[in-house]
Write the structure tokens for this entry.
Amino acid sequence: MDLDIPTLSVVTSINSLISATSIGMLWLVHGRYPGVGHWTAGAFSVFAGGVIIVARSVLPELVSLVAGNILIIAGYGLVLRGLNLFTRQPRQPFLEIGTVITIGAAQTGIGLSGAPLAVRIVLLSTFCAVLAAAMAQ
């Protein structure tokens, strides 16, 4: 069975939009809790990244994949920042900002080298796993 990447991207984007909308409503009602705005912005960023990746047929492939992946990682970085604010933990600037810069540079390099899509997916998945591990602490 083959996985259809565009379909998975659309489903992930819809999931992120639903999450962003739900968390956004929570933020409107309970805005006094630190970090909720970051969670909302993070979910919208993941949604926007997914939409840009899905728009690969309209946008230049290098632009859509690099911009989309940067927005996805930035979204998870914002969620991490929000979680740190909510739990009153110290900032983690390397993870919050460094991962965005690193994935942007790496994805651009991979795109210019003509590496297969699987390499991009492994790289994005690795960065997501690193951020998820930081969130789990």
Q: What stands out?
A: The two ends are 35 Å apart (CA to CA). The chain has a mean pLDDT of 83.
